[in-house]
Design brief:
Helix content: 25-40%
Strand order of the largest sheet: 1-3-2-4-9-5-8-6-7
Shape: globular
CATH architecture of the largest domain: 3-Layer(aba) Sandwich
Structural class: alpha/beta
Number of helices: 13
CATH superfamily of the largest domain: Periplasmic binding protein-like II
Number of strands: 9
Order of helices and strands: EEHEHEHEEHEHEHEHHHHHHH
Strand content: 15-25%
Length: 331
């Protein structure tokens, strides 16, 4: 079943009803996370762009762990989720899908240590990158290797949940080292720990995906969806430190009953600079490296060819319509 965590139907957009100009009259999307910036991104697109691009009804968006089940079952026609899950689903292949663009184009590589841990002597200590198969295990191993530490010299602990759970486990004394996120800098420091690795890498870590059938039969709607998402990102990120339209973007969410926390607003620059893919794309090299990592992590078989599972024709059209350089261009 398509178990719903959050259901938000847009209101007050440019076009609240009526006959649209596209083969699909409404954006119906499922995404894997209901965090504030995820919601702001689509709400801005719905308020400012999708109506003008031909959608006749306000968007219907749901956040759920079962977002791919919603796509496969036809409850929604476009999904947004973590690329490791998408790659695994594409490799399984029961429902042919195409990646049509990138929502988040960088990945935070942050490694934290608990109070009293010597960053020069990590061998034998307890570390976690999440539960078995979690992408953050691969990231943690790569960070250790770049620091000159053999990942196999450490004791790997499986911790279910998000990076917040790894932070809490470390503060509780259950871990010595953990793959964390930038938002953990202050709470980790407050607990007398420290970050020993802090970098951002270009990685197509969260993508938009549709079924092949939808792309074949409703390409006009898919292209309008992509262009609306990118146009919204471009508008929201205008100005020095991405501030020109920040208040207006936040007001859109508030009009729809979504209030940001102080932490949400503090992350604005980091979201724009290090998280969102502002042009909806990522380089071919980044996709290639991602695919290698997915093979190494056994998310996909060794002969998996990611190029067979993407279609960036709508993305390229949208980028050109908006005066942006094609990225990565048609593959």
């Amino acid at each position: 079943m398509f178990s719903l965590v959050l259901l938000v139907t847009a209101c007050g957009g440019d076009d609240e009803g009526g006959e649209g100009e596209l083969s699909l009259n409404q954006v119906r999307m499922a995404m894997d996370g209901d965090d504030y910036m995820n919601q702001l991104a689509w709400m801005v697109a719905d308020e400012r762009n999708w109506g003008d691009l031909g959608f006749g009804e306000a968007a219907d968006v749901v956040a759920s762990d079962e977002y791919l089940a919603g796509l496969f079952g036809g409850d929604v026609w476009v999904a947004q989720g973590e690329s490791d899950v998408i790659w695994s689903a594409m490799a399984e292949g029961s429902i042919p899908m195409k990646v049509i663009g990138v929502d988040k184009g960088q990945e935070a590589w942050f490694l934290g240590i608990a109070e009293g841990v010597d960053p020069e002597n990590l061998e034998g200590l307890r570390i976690s990158g999440g539960a078995a198969g979690d992408r953050n295990i691969t990231v943690a191993r790569k960070m250790l290797e770049e620091m000159g530490v053999d990942p196999d010299s450490m004791e790997w602990i499986s911790i279910d949940g998000s990076s917040d759970d790894r932070l809490n486990a470390m503060i509780a004394g259950q871990l010595d080292v953990a793959a964390l996120q930038p938002r953990h800098l202050l709470p980790l420091a407050d607990a007398s720990g420290q970050m020993i690795f802090e970098e951002y890498r270009e990685v197509p870590q969260e993508v938009w995906v549709v079924t092949e059938k939808t792309l074949e039969e409703n390409r006009d709607a898919v292209c309008a969806y992509v262009e609306g998402r990118i146009a919204a990102k471009q508008w929201a990120s205008e100005g020095d430190d991405y501030q020109d339209n920040k208040d207006a973007a936040v007001a859109i969410t508030e009009d729809r009953g979504l209030e940001p926390s102080e932490g949400d607003l503090e992350e604005w620059v980091a979201e724009m600079e290090h998280n969102w893919s502002l042009d909806g794309g990522a380089t071919e090299e980044a996709f290639e490296q991602w695919n290698v990592d997915m093979i190494d992590n056994e998310n996909v078989p060794a002969d998996f060819d990611w190029r067979e599972h993407v279609d960036f024709s709508c993305l390229t059209e949208a980028q050109e319509n908006l005066g942006l350089e094609p990225n990565p261009g048609d593959i």
